[in-house]
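Hi U.,

Before I forget, here's the chain from the pilot set. I'm dumping it here mostly so it's searchable later in email.
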Amino acid sequence: MALTKDMKLPSDEELTVPQEITLSTPWLKAVAPYMAKHCEDQINEFMLRRKELQDPRATLKEGAAVTACGVDFLRSLKKTCAKETETLANCVDQSSARLFMSKCHDQQKVLDACIEEKLQITRPKMGYFSKLHVYDSKHPAPEPKVRDYKAEAAKVLKELPEDYHLRKDYRNDENYFCNKDYGWSPLVQVTLFLWIYKHTFLSGSIMESFLKSWKAVSWENVQLRVDGEIKAIGQRQDEGEVGRKILVDESNKYRENTTKVIFEDFLSFMLK
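Structure:
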């Protein structure tokens, strides 16, 4: 949604909830499936209203309800399975650098049993929250609003002063095909090009001259020229091999002479 100067934003009091959820990542990963299952109705209501209304200001009450439900679940969990939750959270925190749950299945099974026994919440199966769910909201579906953009644009143009500078490159239906400032439109240009191409290049006289030129080509001369190019390429390759061999021989001789001189200098230095 676009923000305008006339938009009313919520106050700090409307954005404040009695208790925020301040969990670190390991603890949140440890309790997230159970919390989501416990607060499933509140979460569905919030997400549905958020999608339908397309206005975050209109769903502050539903968002606060989700937060309150999460806080209530954490308080119940603290009273019943605090030790098991702490064990799983510590395992997630310390077992891997990326906080993988796959390293802590044993601790997770213990917490599953505790929550199922004392809070009657069964851990959702893998992929449960990715499936499609049908939710019947207590709020009626909002009526779709269709904006009249032409009326809004006409109102804006009417409010402009008479001497307001307007752009000259806007499209006008009356001069769409040919504009006095910019010439022919791209559609007309393409149409003219195709018409000229059809009636010139594809005409009979041009095609006849093209076929005559094609038939007049001497393929023997073409073959001789190709053979000459291939022979020249082979000759250049042979010359390159000879030059490479000469370069390698010279390099070996230089290395042998250099090694010999260095060895003689070393002996003379040691014998002094």
